Amino acid sequence: MIPDLSISSVITTSVCPVRFFLSQNSRNSESPRYTVAKQISYHLGKESDTEEIWDEISLIQKDNNPGLREFFDECIRICHTNTGWRRYSDSDVNVHSSKYHIHGIVDKLFDDEPFFSITRASQAPLSGIYSSDRLRIAAYSVCLEEMLTAEIEGGCIEYIPSGMIRFCRVEPIDKRRFLRALHETRRIKNGQLPRRPMRPPCEKCPEQWRCGPDEGIRLSDLL
Ligand code: SF4
Predict the structure, then answer these.
(1) Domain boundaries, the chain
(2) Could you count the other beta carbons within 10 Å of the beta carbon of residue 30?
(3) What is the pLDDT of residues 156-186, one digit of tens each?
(4) Does ligand 1 lie within 6 Å of residue 18's CB atom?
(5) What is the pLDDT of residues 7-35, one digit of tens each?
(6) Among 205, 214, 222, which is best to mutate for testing ligand 1, by the most ligand atoms less than 8 A from CB?
(7) Between 7-15 and 172-189, two packed helices, what is the crossing angle to 10 degrees?
(8) Whose CA is nearest to atom 7 of ligand 1?
(9) Is residue 46 within a helix (H) or strand (E), and if so which, with residue range?
(10) Looking at the domain 1-8+88-190, which fold is it?
(11) Which residues 6+ apart lie within 8 Å of 134 measured at CB?
(12) Helices then strands, each counted (H, E), the chain
């Protein structure tokens, strides 16, 4: 039987296979900024009390330092300048593909097109969509097409710190990248060594302390 892979693991591999390899046994806790973005996102498109949202964040996230409150206030301010937020029909929906053996959680589902959206805690790029977000949309579209037996053209990305929604239409290149990352993730899971990308994004890598931007993966990590 082929074991299921999480969509997030496939995305990590697409960024850097070495990072996925090193992070397999790490415990990933939710980042405070992501908690802020998620809670704000739930309330978009309806009347909400700002302090009520902050109380929810304080309940979920213990690491709510003064800088986080500033980030929250700025996100609230910028999101209120956008009137295009839609009310969702369901949130945090488990999705799965039996064909590709992947699973994940879609942030929001809607009754009409675009049928789903994901929430990001990062600023939107100056134009377009980050390639890792394109991959996320491609992977969730694969799952939803199978589950709903409907054609899913793409999904939306909510860039909460920018107060923006961007639609991502899944293109053939996104599907090719998704398949490549999926196969690489399986290869590593099956005990093969990860391949270091040509230009790995080491600057903000959480695994840098045991990998290092210059030397890449150390022999001791592989044994
Ligand atoms: S430090 Fe660079 S090479 Fe090492 S895991 Fe991170 S992104 Fe990959």
Answers:
(1) 1-8+88-190, 27-85
(2) 12
(3) 999 999 999 999 999 999 999 999 999 999 9
(4) yes
(5) 999 999 999 999 999 998 777 788 999 99
(6) 205
(7) 100
(8) 202
(9) none
(10) Lambda Exonuclease; Chain A (3.90.320)
(11) 168, 170, 171, 174, 177
(12) 9, 6
